[in-house]
Amino acid sequence: MGKYIAKRAGYMLITLFIIATFSFILMKLLPGSPLTAEQKVTAAQRAIIEAKYGLDQPILIQYFKYIGNLVQGDLGVSFQLKNQPVTSILMAGVPVSAQLGIWALFIGTFFGMLLGLLASIKHNTIFDYGANIVSVLGISIPSFIFAGLLQYFVGVKWGLLPIAFWGTPEQMIMPIISLSIFPMAISSRFLRTEMIEVLGSDYMVTAKAKGVSNFALIFKHALRNALIPLITVMGPMAVSLMTGTLVIEQIFSVPGLGEQFTRGVLTNDYSIIMGTTLFFAFFFILVILIIDLLYGIVDPRIRLAGGDD
Amino acid sequence: MSNEPNKDLFVMAKDREDTSEKINRPSLTFWQDSWMRLRKNKGALFGMIVLILIVLMAIFGPIFSSHGLDDQDLSLSRMPPKVQGLENFSWLGLDGKNRETFEADTIELAEQRALARFQQPDTEFIEAEVKQEPNNETGELAVVEYAFDKYAAQGVDEYFWFGTDTLGRDLFTRVWLGTRISLLIALVAAFIDMLVGVAYGGISAYFGGRTDTIMQRIIEVLIGIPNLVVVILMIMILDPGIVAIIIALTITGWTGMARIVRGQVLKLKGQEFVLASRTLGASHTRILTKHLIPNTIGLIIINAMFTIPNAIFFEAFLSFIGLGLQAPDTSLGTLINDGFKALQVNPYIMIFPAIVMSLIMIGFNILADGLRDALDPKMRE
Amino acid sequence: MENILEVKNLHVSFDTYGGEVQAVRGVSFDLKKGETLAIVGESGSGKSVTTRALAKLIPSPPGRIKEGEILFEGKDLATLSEREMQKIRGKDISTIFQDPMTSLNPTMKIGTQVMEGLLKHNKISKKEARKRTLELLELVGLPEPEKRIDQYPHQFSGGQRQRIVIAIALACGPKILIADEPTTALDVTIQAQILELMKDIQKKVDSSIIFITHDLGVVANVADRVAVMYAGKIVEIGTADEIFYNPKHPYTWGLLGSMPTLDNEEESLIAIPGSPPDMLNPPIGDAFATRNEYAMEIDFVEQPPMFKVSDTHYAATWLLHEHAPKVEPPLAVQSRMKDNLHANVPEERKKEGDRS
Ligand SMILES: Nc1ncnc2c1ncn2[C@@H]1O[C@H](COP(=O)(O)OP(=O)(O)OP(=O)(O)O)[C@@H](O)[C@H]1O
Ligand SMILES: [Mg+2]
Predict the structure, then answer these.
(1) Which residues of chain A are within 8 Å of residue C105 when distances are taken between CB atoms?
(2) Which chain C residues touch A203 with a CB distance below 8 Å?
(3) Which pLDDT score is estimated for A272?
(4) Which residues contact C41 (CB under 8 A, 6 or more apart)?
(5) Whose CA is nearest to atom 2 of ligand 1?
(6) pLDDT, position C352
(7) What pLDDT is recorded for position A179?
(8) Do B323 and A288 touch (CB under 8 A)?
(9) b (16+ CB within 10 A) / e for C111-142
(10) Cβ distance of C296 and B7 shorter than 8 Å
(11) Could you tell me if A105 and A188 lie in one domain?
């Protein structure tokens, strides 16, 4: 197990390193970025930047400094918002995005699992078909379209909920629902498929032959076995939540990471864009690592096998 | 069976043809069998029909409409959708009227607000429907729905089936144009993914050993990089445009395909027919192209089918974060994004491209699901 | 001896896309207290479906018990509700399945799996149940039970897992133990150990066993009586001696002919030609007729009833009818029936009460 963690963590570091290097080169290449020479900044700002990055030094030294700064969590300064460190700008958005993402994840998987469980128990009934249609729609239709429909009908036409900003529970409902559709659909579909397979397996017959009641069959025997593979969809879910927050935050004017990012794009604030991108990369890779480890903890079969792929 | 059986029957039977070993079903080729199974899957069939219709519309749709592709006419901006023959079904919202509900203390006040909203001097082109009379005692407000006939007010005789956008361009034409671009981007991206993925995965698995190890290590690193990050970084280097988006989508998109192909080829490699043709002296390329790839084709098609909606989604996503196609290029993503800006007053600008996009996504997803069941019985539920 | 189970005219079908698969078509037999009844027959003949139907473990849908009675201590199980069946399963009727690798829940400690039945059917505390479980694991010969009770199935070998499955089945001292090919998935030495274990345990707990196997050597070793199944029916049933030394049904001859023996190696084995019929459309007459070199015209027209050979021995073949010509089993089979075949000609050739 220890060897396995080390191996995964090794890959994680290599990947991060490549992304960081890539973004360093980009910063050097892009016109108007704070690290290029021909830029229209004030002398004072230039002095700060030059002191920080040592622009007079050879490029290799600059590169190592850049990486060194990254390791310490220093992502440079914003190019547009004068002198503000990127890290602190991002950190202002993170709690809001995290709040949105975690609620969406929690609500989505909860209802998704409920739906998937019922569908598998009522396999091949109208209810099952209905649940199937719901999950196909939820997986196919992008979250921004749900967001648009919600915003128009619930917000504008019926005037039930506020259509923008973040803070009060009313403001949070629509963004969270829009973002939770995908996790709901995918966990529902996945749990249903897994449950149907588990319910038909030999050990379920063994359990039934012991005289175990139907309730215990499902909740004590089947559910745990069906839930374990659900970990594999956590990767796609994390991705969908990340891309989702970017657009959903923009649509509902939620002041999170996504909004910082889009503002960065609109104002050509490259250091913000790079900072957010690196942050996303780090987050994603961390999630993948956690999923891998979780797999090992939850499933006793993998736990002792040492988890070799 | 109460009566004794016939005595004459107790004689040894003549040799009969043993039919027990005959297979009753006609033997089908792999593709015939798959097609039969696909046809039984109503969802997949529905998806296929929807997709065919949408592709046809993307190709021929703009021709049906009498409006030019990029005709701008600011006097015709924001015309609501109006379709011949559907004008009398107001609930469809295709009667060329803007409908809005106003609440005020009195009906007169509501009317004033409606006139202000529609920028009209009088109610000549406005129909009113009182939903609730005002009541001073209970404090109930007047609720009135006004329907403004913009076509009549501006003396427009044409029909804009999906309405017009803020610049007065015909949305019907633009939606199918955008569909064309979105599909193009997705198909090309899926195709490139397929080429690169099949080549990489095939070579990696077929040669095995060191080659395989090195190639797999590279993939493991690439897979760790989130798609989102790659796409954003690539778009930043390249100027936004169709080519840039395709490159951004494919630069790491092929890894999934490569993994699947590698897995399948590894499995097939050990099987006897490959060993047989190897002993017969077949060359590497021959074995790869004649034996291994054809036996992997099902998986490749399924995977490509899932790639397409993903690419369409990412293209639209890029429009949302400001990294998508730039005007005058248009795609479903840019149309929906533009629609958002006018969502409060003219929801149809967003709704039509959103419906088309949803249909494409649903179509590809259920067709891909159906194909997976049809082409690979082992993967069935 | 007293009958603990009587099965009468059992029919089980599966409703599939292709139509109704008639897996079991009128099976009748009884099981006496303390005896071991072996069921043999080719793959797909309906052995598993028959025995699963006894504890109503047929997945439904698609399966259903179409007709028939399953009388256990006078109660007809076929008519009991699911809730009432839960009280019988594991307590009175237990089942051991073929594949120990898949028949244990991979994410549950084996101790918990054994205890579950104990707690369900007895009013005992967790602590007592755990103590009983340790005894059971000891009984089935699992080494170091205290250490292993909290481990998961993947930490055990196939033979050990089958011992655990047996412990689960024995937990509540069932009156009937159904073993569906309990040793097929195991290697030969482990097979022998598991068989010894089952014989031992049967002596201790005095339960009746229904034993399904393809291995006639195992049958000879464990069975008191043998039922031969073909295409969803019992075609011959009798004591082990009667089936081995005086078989009457050509299908039984075929089975015996295809059994390897140690003492006559030089003889080649005779495989039964052809394959079993499609249970979607079972044939009109005797299902075995097309593969039977002794088939008569009547076999293609009408299904044979059960003919009585002795009080304990019945066979469903027209060859036992008074009008039938006399035929001898093939030589290979005759040489296996070590006793003199002709000493055992059935005294009465009268038709037994016709049930079908
Ligand atoms: N769930 C099911 N759905 C449809 N048909 C089934 C199902 N289970 C069993 N059958 C059919 O019932 C018939 C009898 O199967 P059964 O499992 O009892 O055979 P068996 O004698 O136990 O064979 P084996 O020796 O291989 O275990 C077979 O034709 C099989 O196809
Ligand atoms: Mg069986």
Answers:
(1) 203, 206-207, 221, 225
(2) 102-106
(3) 83
(4) C47, C228, C229, C230, C255
(5) C14
(6) 41
(7) 94
(8) no
(9) bbbbbbbbbbbeeeeeeebbebbbebbebbbb
(10) no
(11) yes
pLDDT score for C130:
94
How distant is the Cα of A29 from the closest Cα of chain B, in angstroms?
A: 8
This prediction has a pTM of: 0.82
- When the pLDDT of each residue in chain C is averaged and rounded to a whole number, the result is 82
Q: Which of C274, C305, C325 sits opposite B12 (nearest CB)?
A: C325
> Nearest-CA residue of chain B relative to A265?
B322
Would you list the domain boundaries of chain B?
84-154, 171-375
On whether ipTM exceeds 0.90, the answer is: no
Please choose from C11, C14, C235 the residue to mutate so as to test ligand 1's pocket, defined by most ligand atoms within 8 A of CB. Answer: C14
Q: Which of C20, C25, C45, C60 to mutate to test the pocket of ligand 1 (most atoms within 8 A of CB)?
A: C45
Q: Are B300 and B261 in contact (CB under 8 A)?
A: yes
Q: Probe ligand 1: pick from C11, C17, C47, max atoms within 8 Å of CB? A: C47
Q: Does residue A248 share a domain with residue A151?
A: yes
Q: For C174-184, how does the pLDDT look when each residue is reduced to its tens digit (9 = 90+)?
A: 899 999 988 87
Fold of B171-375: MetI-like fold (1.10.3720)
- A233: pLDDT strictly greater than 80: yes
Q: Compare CB distances from A140 to B322, B340, B361 and report the shortest one's residue.
A: B361
What is the DSSP secondary-structure string of B157-179?
-S--TT-B-TT--BHHHHHHHHH
Residue nearest ligand 1's atom 18 by CA: C46
pLDDT at residue A242 above 50? yes
**Structural domain that includes position C34:** 1-92+174-356
Total tally of structural domains belonging to chain C: 1
* Model pLDDT for residues B145-186, shown as the tens digit of each residue: 777 777 777 777 777 777 777 777 788 888 898 999 999 999
Contact status, residue C42 vs residue C111, Cβ threshold 8 Å: no
| Cβ within 8 Å, pair C116-A212 | yes
Interval B284-291 mean pLDDT: 74
The pLDDT assigned to C340 comes to: 38
Residues A44 and A152 both lie in one domain: no
Q: What are the distances in angstroms from CA C302 to CA A83, A275, C62? A: 98, 84, 29
Residue B333 · residue B325 · CB < 8 Å:
yes
Band the pLDDT of C345: cuts 50, 70, 90: very low
Q: A125 and A48: one domain?
A: no
Residue A121 sits in the same domain as residue A170: yes
- Is C290 in Cβ contact with B16 (below 8 Å)? yes
Which of the 8 DSSP states describes residue B206? Answer: H
Read off the tokens for B346. Answer: 């003219």
pLDDT at C81 over 80: yes
CA–centroid distance, C43 to ligand 2, in Å, is 7
Complete DSSP assignment for B267-298: HHHTSHHHHHHHHTT--HHHIIIIIITGGGHH
Give residue-wise pLDDT tens across range B52-101: 999 999 988 777 766 665 666 767 777 777 777 666 766 667 777 777 77
Residue C219: CATH number of its domain: 3.40.50.300
Domain coverage including residue A31: 14-71
Q: Which two structure tokens, joined as six digits, stand for C335?
A: 């040489």
- For residues C165 and C163, give the distance between their C-alpha atoms in angstroms, rounded to a whole number: 5
CA of A175 to the centre of ligand 2 (A): 54
Q: What is the pLDDT of residues B250-270, one digit of tens each?
A: 988 899 899 888 888 888 877
Nearest to C154 among A210, A225, A300 (CB): A300
Enumerate helices (H) and strands (E) in chain A, giving the number of each: 14, 0
Predicted confidence (pLDDT) per residue in B201-225, tens digit: 988 988 888 999 899 888 887 877 7
For A125-134, A224-233, B120-129, which range has the lowest pLDDT when averaged over its residues? B120-129
Q: Choose among A52, A121, A178: nearest CA to B320.
A: A178
Residues A42 and A122 in one domain: no
Q: Which helix (H) or strand (E) holds C138?
A: helix C126-139
> How many angstroms separate the alpha carbon of residue C43 from the centre of ligand 1?
8
Structural domains counted in chain A: 2
